[in-house]
Design goal:
The complex is a heterodimer of chains A (138) and B (92).
Chain A (H helix, E strand, L loop, with lengths): L1 E3 L1 H14 L5 E9 L2 E10 L10 E4 L1 H13 L3 E10 L7 H5 L6 E8 L2 E8 L10 E2 L1 E2 L1
Parallel strand pairs in A: 1-3, 1-9, 5-6
Antiparallel strand pairs in A: 2-3, 2-5, 6-7, 7-8
Chain B lengths: L1 E4 L13 E4 L4 H11 L4 H4 L10 E5 L2 E2 L15 E6 L1 E4 L2
Parallel strand pairs in B: 1-5
Antiparallel strand pairs in B: 1-2, 3-4, 3-5
Chain lengths: 138, 92
């Protein structure tokens, strides 16, 4: 179960809307506790995909390293990654799965005609063959 | 001795430590020492053939080891290694 606090959630939605019709991406910082994960801060990261970004995103590892450093300085952890699906549902696509990492929760925000529509969270497995849903509260 | 920063989800394999310090003169030796001391980490980082998993990047301080000699990159006392995943995606 992953819970996103109002402030980071608003930041994620604003980032996804501002990036429309392109995909956005970012890191979610917070804590993993006995009763689940809590996102307390969202860090917007640059979509580094070289090409049309309406249907693709890519995170620079160096940017993720910087987000990890920021999390440690704030006594938080990187617990997930978010990205948007412009004018698509919030599913975990084959491309998402093939380029995922089992270490993190992956939140997908559906942005329809520039406005937030719905979101889901996924937990990809090791072999990048499955990504079951994780219960998401926002 | 180099320090390795452990990503949050992998701390369950390092007795909840967020960083560990292990010996080694090169990045390869440091990673080998890490997975010897914490064997449950091996599957997380390496394939069965002993290669880094496709989604794992290793940084020595702020440098991606792919550009500074890979496993043979020298690791000095006080250096910091980070394990950083490759992540991308799309709608299709």
């Amino acid at each position: 179960m992953i819970r996103i606090e109002p402030e980071p959630w608003a930041a994620m939605v604003a980032h996804a809307r501002a990036s429309y019709p392109n995909e956005c991406c970012g890191a979610m910082l917070g804590a993993i506790e006995d009763d689940g994960k809590t996102v307390r801060q969202a860090i917007a990261l640059e979509n580094a995909f070289e090409g049309a970004q309406a249907a693709r995103y890519e995170l620079r590892p160096a940017d993720l390293l910087a987000a990890d450093k920021a999390a440690r300085e704030r006594r938080m952890d990187v617990i997930g990654i978010y990205h948007s699906h412009p004018d698509c549902d919030a599913y975990f696509s084959a491309t998402d799965l093939q380029n995922s990492c089992p270490w993190y929760s992956f939140v997908v925000l559906s942005i329809q005609k520039g406005e937030f529509h719905h979101a889901n969270c996924f937990l990809p497995n090791f072999d990048q063959t499955e990504a079951p849903k994780e219960e998401l509260f926002y | 001795m180099a320090k390795i920063l452990i990503p949050t989800p992998l701390r369950q394999f390092t007795a909840k430590q967020d960083s560990v310090t292990v010996p080694g003169a090169t990045v390869g030796e440091v990673l080998a020492a890490l997975t010897t001391e914490y064997p449950d980490l091996r599957k997380q980082i390496f394939t069965e053939e002993g290669k880094l998993r496709s989604f794992v990047n290793v940084y020595l301080n702020d440098e991606d080891i792919r550009y500074i000699g890979k496993d043979a990159a020298p690791a000095a006392d006080g250096d910091t290694l980070s394990l950083v995943p490759s992540i991308a995606g799309g709608t299709h």
